[in-house]
Specification:
CATH superfamily: HIT-like
Helix content: 25-40%
CATH topology: HIT family, subunit A
Radius of gyration: 14 Å
Strand content: 15-25%
Distance between the termini: 40 Å
Length: 142
């Protein structure tokens, strides 16, 4: 297995080297807006532990990520009036992983509305900021 790359984008965000639209943080996890969202309110949950993916993640990091993913699922469902939530997690290139720091996608879903295709186009920062604020407000009510 390939070793963990300390220069990956999420490691750099965790070190404060890159900006992000953070919606939630605790001692073990960080949740932030996906800059190429497939749905309004698409967030990523990452462990603070340096792990490439599920294959090398310590059990305590996996537990923390799932607990935070549940918290964010409830918040995005409320914030966006969603009917459901899609959660995705990819491992290694063959599994669709692109950024090699473990992360979980949490996407609010509406009945009959498909996810947007992943085109690589970045969302406008002001839209990400507004969506992040909606989620933070929903978290504050929980």
């Amino acid at each position: 297995m390939t070793t963990y790359d300390e220069a990956n984008v999420f490691a750099r965000i965790l070190r404060g080297e890159l900006p992000s639209h953070t919606v939630y943080e605790d001692a073990e996890t960080l949740a932030l807006m996906d800059i190429m969202p497939r749905a309004d309110g698409h967030v990523l949950v990452i462990p603070k532990a340096a792990c490439r993916n599920i294959f090398d993640a310590p059990p305590e990091a996996l537990k923390a990520v799932v607990i935070t993913a549940q918290r964010l699922s409830l918040a995005v469902r409320s914030a966006f009036g969603a009917d459901g939530v899609t959660i995705q997690q990819f491992n290694e290139t063959a599994g669709g992983q692109v950024v090699f720091h473990m992360h979980v996608h949490v996407m609010p879903r509406h009945e009959g509305v498909a996810l947007r295709p992943h085109t690589g186009a970045m969302e406008k920062p002001e839209i990400l900021a507004a969506n992040a604020e909606k989620i933070r407000a929903a978290l504050a009510k929980a």
